[in-house]
Specification:
Layout lengths: L1 E4 L3 E2 L10 H13 L3 H4 L2 E5 L5 E5 L1 H10 L3 E6 L5 H10 L9 H7 L2 H6 L11 H8 L1 H6 L10 H13 L6 H9 L1
Parallel strand pairs: 2-4, 3-5
Antiparallel strand pairs: 1-5, 3-4
Helix pairs in contact: 1-3
């Protein structure tokens, strides 16, 4: 790992990943609150023909670091990678694998703080009564006897995922029918 002046590092124009608005503001705030995390997660770059560092991994961290006013950033070089490896990394580094265990997060973490740290916390995860009802999935399979406010299709899809992960035998179509009653 090396440290480079932020002026020597440029974003990769071929990187299609962006973070906008509120999520970007959270990233900026996270760097203000905990800039040391950059040392443990350096930018991954390669050197272009002009001698500039081009970001393969960390484009939005670079943008946030500029907004924070940082002068140097930790960099790991991938100059030994071929073009196919660089392209592959651009995508694979940004693919989100896995899901969050919301019950565990709710039990062991401050849900509001998780949101402040940038985690997209489903609105229903903030309501412990709803979570308790969802946790009792066997009674859910028998009948729907609780109310959850879903303000968007995304929230409804998150609930569907929650039901699927929890082992519910109810189909999504059945869920929608019962939810509409």
């Amino acid at each position: 790992m090396i440290y480079k002046n932020i002026t020597e590092i440029k974003p990769n124009p071929k990187n299609p990943r962006v973070i906008k608005d509120e999520k970007f503001a959270k990233l900026v705030q996270s760097l203000k609150d905990f800039p040391e995390m950059l040392e443990k997660r350096p930018l991954i770059c390669f050197t272009d023909t002009d001698g500039k560092m081009v970001v393969l991994g960390g484009k939005m961290r670079l943008k946030a670091a500029k907004e924070v006013g940082l002068k140097k950033l930790p960099v790991m070089l991938a100059d030994d990678w071929n073009e196919e490896q660089k392209q592959q990394f651009l995508i694979k580094d940004n693919v989100g694998f896995g899901e969050w265990n919301w019950e565990e997060l709710q039990q062991d973490w401050d849900v509001q703080q998780l949101g402040e740290w940038g985690l997209d916390v489903p609105q229903w995860a903030n309501n412990s009564e709803d979570i308790e009802d969802i946790e009792n999935i066997e009674s859910f399979n028998e009948s729907v006897n609780f109310t959850i406010k879903c303000e968007s299709i995304e929230q409804l899809e998150e609930l569907q995922t929650k039901l699927n992960v929890s082992g519910s035998k109810i189909s999504y179509d059945d869920f929608l029918v019962k939810a509409a009653l």
